[in-house]
Fold this protein.
Amino acid sequence: MSILITRPLHDAVTHYLYHWSESLVEKAKSKKLSVIDLQKEKASRKLVESYLEKQHPDTVIFNGHGDDVCVTGQDEEVLIEAGKNSYLLKDKVVYMRACDSGKVLGPKSVEEGAEAFIGYKELFRFWTDGESIHKPLKDEYAKPFFETSNQVALSLIKGKSAKESHDDSLKVYTKVISDLLTSKSSNSFVVADLIWNMYNQVCLEKQEI
Amino acid sequence: MTTDNTEKISQDAINLVIARLKTIPSNAKLSIGGEKETLSIENLIEEVKKQSEIGKKVVESQMFFLRSLQDLPLAPTN
């Protein structure tokens, strides 16, 4: 099994995505998967297209900004755009941690042959403590958002199906939300946006389209 | 689940969301959508008051949370 992951790093948002995705790369390597880690400047359209066409990774994980029709890489370069080069996702399981990716780009990719697509049909959100920019993995406000969303990728890396991975993630959301709602912790305010991400995380499979 | 962005949000909802935002620790910042930088509580309150696109999104998620509380599939507590 092979996996391609994009990790741009050029602003506060991608800074968190980049660092919270490190454990995914490590996990995939520990499982002896073939890992194509397109980080920073390597998260370019040219390289993404080239690897998708020539290396045929089974699983593709995108981290970055996005909208209804596209996901971006380093310095906001469009990596995949619905109807333009989304056909390159054919036969692949895709997890796109990017805003609104489940609205148009997700369905279009599956329509064009992607095995499955997990993404968000609304804006993906997360809180930060404003002080942990140099140690984002220690940010207790951000942690619930990345523990829950990372589970999708972790389950895919373990070889589970897209639906199983999506469901595993929802279980982690449920646990984390329950824990926060019944705790006195200072980060319990994040629950509203955690629920938002949970309810807007979608899993689209080939037969559904 | 989504709100038509042209739909007018009630003043009661705006006031409620602002009151909720004021209970959040002042160091907290929200990353939302295509915004490259995170937004402080002060920024968010301003966005909600002027009912910008971001402000509407914040109201939408907070109201969704309040409405969904009774239906949450919570894990059993120990």
The first strand of chain B starts at residue 29 and ends at 32. Chain B has a mean pLDDT of 85.
